[in-house]
Structure formats: C-alpha cells, structure tokens
Amino acid sequence: MSVSYDQLFRSDAAAAPASFSSEAVGDLLRHALGLSAWKQFREARWSLRVNPSSGNLHPTEAYVVTGRLEGLSEAPSVFHYAADRHALERRCEFDAAAWRTMSYAAGIGGGNVCLVALTSIHWRESWKYGERAFRYCQHDLGHAIAAIRIAAALMGWRAVLLPEWPHTDIATLTGIDRDEDYVEAEREEPGCLLAITATGEVPDGLRTGRAPIVEAVRHGHWSGRASQLSEDHVQWTFIDEVARATEDRGRPRPAFSACPAPPVLMQFSAADARALVLQRRSAVAFDGRSSIGVDRFLQMLTRVLPGPHAPWDALWWTPRIHFVVFVHRVDGLDPGLYFLPRDLAVLDRIRGASRPEFLWEHVPPLFCLVRGDCRAVAARVSCGQDIASDGFFSLGMLAELDRSLQEFGPAFYRHLFWESGVVGQMLYLDAEAAGARATGIGCFFDDPVHDVLGLSGHAFQSLYHFTVGMPVEDGRLTTAPGYEWEQTSG
Fold first, then answer.
1. Same domain, 209 and 297
2. What pLDDT does residue 96 have?
3. Does the residue 266 lie in any domain?
4. How far is it, in rounded angstroms, from Cα 137 to Cα 124?
5. What is the average per-residue pLDDT within 56-67?
6. How many domains does the chain divide into?
7. 82, 210: one domain
C-alpha cells in the first residue's frame, strides 16, 4: 500500500491496517532495519541501513517472536533478523500453548501481534570508540525504535515499548543468556522489547502476561550459535560497569496525562514514505552556502514535538530531551542561539539554570536566547567539526538528567539516549523530505556546551548533537539497491 510521508504523522489519515502475514512482517523489517543501499568506491564496497549507526558499525541486533504465521512458521518461534540477507533465522521453537495463553490474555486471539526485541553488541562500537561505545549503542537503539515505529505506521500498525519486561526476561526471550550459544563469541546486552499489533491499542496482557512465554522459551528447542567477530579484544570494564548499573528490572507503565498535540502542520511532502525511508543517508559534508525557508525549518522542528502518532506513541514517558539550536542559514529568521522545549513544563527549570542575560524572546515554537553569528561556537562544541557550522542549523540535545533519574531510577539513563535517537531519526527523515540531509554528531564537548548556556551540575546534560544542511555529494561513489532482488525487479 502506498502511504505519503506526511500521512505517517496524521492520526486521522493513517494507513488502513494490513493483514498480519509473513510478507507484512517482512515489509516492516525491510523498512525498519534492512539494508537501504550499497556504496562502492573502486574495490571497496559497503552497505548502508535504514536505521543509522555511529560509524556505520551497527551494534543493534533484532529478534522477532511470533505465533504460527503462514509462510514463516507452523509453531511459535523466536527468530533472529539477518539484515544482510533480509532473512529471519529461527533460533527457538516453543510450546504453542504458552503463546495462546499470552495472546488470549491480551484479548487478541492467536494472531495480529508479534514481539520485536532489540539487543546491543558493545564490541562492535568499543573497538573503535572505547568507553563512548555504551552511549553510542543507546543512541542506535533509539534510532531503531523510531525506525520500527515508523515502519509499523507504513502498515497501519502500532508499535510500543513494553517497560514491564525486565532485562533478564528479554535475555531469556532472545536466548542471549545461553552461554553455550556464545562460546568465544561476543555477548549481547538486552535493550528493549516492542509489541507490534495490527489492532490498535496494545492490551495489558502483552505487558503483564510474560511468565508463560518466558518459561516456554527457556525450555524450547534452540538451534544455532553466535559467530565470533574478533579473535582479539580490548576489555572496557567501564562499559560493563555502566551496563550493570543501568540494568532494567522492569516497571509498570506510568499513568501520564497526554502531551498536547503539536500545531497542525502544512503539507510539505507528498513523497512516498517507503521511498523516503530507504533514501535516508547521513551527510558527510555540507556546502556552507545553502539556506532553508523559515516555514520549512519550523515545520521540521514541530515534527519533533510529541503527539498522538508515530513515533512518539511508542514511548511511555513524557519528553525529557530538549534542543539548543544554533541557527545559521534560515531565510526569515535571525541567526543566533535558540531553545526548543519539547515539553513547556521545562521552561521555568531551564531559565532558572541558564545565563540570566539570555533574551527568551518567543518565536513559536522556539525561544531566542542570543542573536548573532554562532557558526564558530557550533563547530567548537562539536569537536571542531565544520559540518556543525556549514548547514542550515545544528543543535545540541539537552536531557533533564537528575530529575529523570530521580523519578525512574538508574535504568532510565539508557532511555534518555533512546529518546535522543528517536528525535534524531525524525530529523533525518524530515531533512530528506525537505530535499536536504542530516547527520548525528556523537563527538562533542559536554563542558563547553554547558558553558555556552551557563549550566552547572547535572540537572541538564548534553547527550547528542545533530546538524541539517545541503549535502556535498561524492561523485566518485556508485550506489546500488540494498538487495539484489530489488535491483532485478526494477
């Protein structure tokens, strides 16, 4: 079915739900976690994916748990998604009675639902980035969460996180706690679990009825072993310590009042959403000259505000990530430093914590802090990278750190990075819809960012940077579709 990009974010114009089938699940995975393209320069050839990753290293692994599904499995099973081949590899077949117990308790009969678990292999990032690997893995999980929710919207489905599932149960569900399957191979760290439904709301039974399925999977018929990535390793004990300190023991879903819906957006892109998802790329350089109109710029920022639609309805918490925006080349808006609150409740807190000389002039949905050329500052706080100053704008994502950890505990540290990745995924896609390009910046200087704003302590913490502009394409590279069957089918 064809869905326009703008349709994805209008709850009154969502796609009609597709029938739950092996083909439909495959379509979801292809547009969430599959290969988007192959690039080649001379003899060097490498793949890109729909979901971005720091350094294109892709530490995120995905597992699909489903009941009997024609064309895929005659029995409830746990599958590992192999993105390189766009294939599901069966890891475990388990008792059908357990799946029926959970699904009927959830009020969904035996079908129209599957579970998707995400895990991380820290070594895929740590060999290159060292201790930063942990937060990069969490950024990548956030991008993947958003990619899954948006791909579900393409099908007219829902995808929501299940915070009730602790890491120990996710590890059992995916088999990553099976020592015998990881002999000499790098271990995986549990991330999160999402429910995918074709029936709208996710029933409570999917959240609370996990015991039968966890027990059935534990005693199921397992096959396959993990492959070793490297013979030699550097042990980053700090990563293991942070992983243990932020282990999620599960939690009941809090009852929050819904965030107000953002203003109705003008339609800027009637492009086919599937095509746009597959064309997403990370920019490597901007031209330093092009600009964007203020209406399109404000629409892009409005798109990251929470609302009752994808991807925000996948999350269970109120927004904790807010933007400090360095405006460089926006036609109709003064260059300068701005603040974008993704929840207006943060305004008093951030004003009280930041420099008293800031203007706080309201330019909805932004607040102007300082006018003037801030390109040099933007580059300096992003590790001196010109890409932060050569675009239309760049931004730093500020998390309400202390307040969030006090409210939800240490495990929520991961969730803050997830939220920054979800926000980043929307910036990626909306940049493509605007005919531009974006890229995440994982290397930045925390203290200089805080100095610019006059912040101290950890009430607010810089977690991720992003930039959007007009890309400089490398004409030496050739591009091919993600899979051979797409090339031959035209």
1. no
2. 86
3. no
4. 9
5. 95
6. 2
7. yes
Show Cβ contacts of residue 235 under 8 Å, excluding neighbours closer than 6 positions. none
| Residue 406: domain span | 282-469
Residues 294, 157 share a domain: no
Q: Which of 193, 220, 245 is the last residue of a domain?
A: 245
Residues 290 and 221 in one domain: no
* pLDDT tens per residue, range 93-139: 998 888 877 665 555 545 678 899 999 999 999 999 999 999 999 99
pLDDT score at 82: 96
Return mean pLDDT, the chain: 90
Considering the domain architecture, whether residues 199 and 348 belong to the same structural domain is answered as no
SS in 3 state form for the chain?
CCCECHHHHCHHHCCCCCCCCHHHHHHHHHHHHCEEEEEEECCEEEEEECCCCHHHCCCEEEEEEECCECCCECCCEEEEEECCCCEEEEEEECCHHHHHHHHHHCCCCCCCEEEEEEEECCHHHHHHHHHHHHHHHHHHHHHHHHHHHHHHHHCCCEEEECCCCCHHHHHHHHCCCCHHHCCCCCCCEEEEEEEEECCCCCCHHHHHCCHHHHHHHHCCEECCCCCCCCCCCCCCHHHHHHHHHCCCCCCCCCCCCCCCCCCCCCCCCCCEHHHHHHHCCECCCECCCCCEEHHHHHHHHHHCCCCCCCCHHHCCCCCCEEEEEEECCEECCCCEEEEECCCHHHHHHHHHHCCCCCCCEEECCEEEEEECCCHHHHHHHCCCCHHHCCCCEEEEEEEEHHHHHHHHCCCHHHHHHHHHHHHHHHHHHHHHHCCCEEEEECCCCHHHHHHHHCCCCCCEEEEEEEEEECECCCCCCEEEECCHHHHHHC
Residue 222: give its domain's CATH number. 3.40.109.10
Asked whether residue 296 is assigned to any structural domain, the reply reads yes
Query: What was the pLDDT predicted at 100?
Result: 77
Q: What CA–CA distance (Å, rounded) separates 183 from 191?
A: 21
Residue 475 lies in a domain: no
Residue 271 lies in a domain: no
